[in-house]
Amino acid sequence: MQKTATITSKKQFTIPARVYEAAGFKHGQKVLVTVEDGKMIVYPAELLIERLAGSLKAPESWKGKDAEEIIKQAKEEYFARGRK
Predict the structure, then answer these.
(1) Residue 26 burial by CB count (10 A; 0-12/13-18/19+): exposed, middle or buried?
(2) Is the pLDDT assigned to residue 6 strictly greater than 80?
(3) How many domains does the chain have?
(4) Is residue 48 domain-resident?
(5) Which domain holds residue 76?
(6) Helix (H/G/I), strand (E/B), else coil: 70
(7) Most Cβ neighbours (<10 Å): which of 14, 15, 33, 50?
(8) Domain assignment present for 56
């Protein structure tokens, strides 16, 4: 499927509805954006998490928390140490 989108002056574009639906994206979902061979690839962040599952030991403080909670906690801890 190929659809046209226009890039705005803010370097943004809207994903055409049919592409959004065909990709199975959901409102509020986190996605990863990468470039390979001059092509932009957008995919659900969950795929990276699934790919890495079991390859890293998760800290005990992460047990039972979802990814959004973990990210929020990590940011709070990072900025509490005085980093900007």
Answers:
(1) exposed
(2) yes
(3) 1
(4) yes
(5) 27-80
(6) helix
(7) 15
(8) yes
5 domain residue, yes or no: no
What CA–CA distance (Å, rounded) separates 64 from 60? 9
Whether the model pTM is above 0.70: no
Residue 15 lies in a domain: no
Q: What is the pLDDT of residues 17-68, one digit of tens each?
A: 999 999 999 999 989 999 999 999 998 888 877 777 777 777 888 888 888 8
Amino acid identity of 15?
I
Q: Is 46 within 8 Å of 40 (Cβ atoms)?
A: no
- Which phi and psi (to 5°) does residue 6 adopt? -105, 130
- Helix, coil or strand: residue 55: coil
**Residue 81 binned pLDDT confidence (cut-offs 50, 70, 90):** confident
Q: How far is 84 from 80, CA to CA, in rounded Å?
A: 10
Query: Is residue 17 a contact partner of residue 1, using CB atoms and an 8 Å limit?
Result: no
In whole angstroms, what separates CA 76 from the centre of its chain?
19
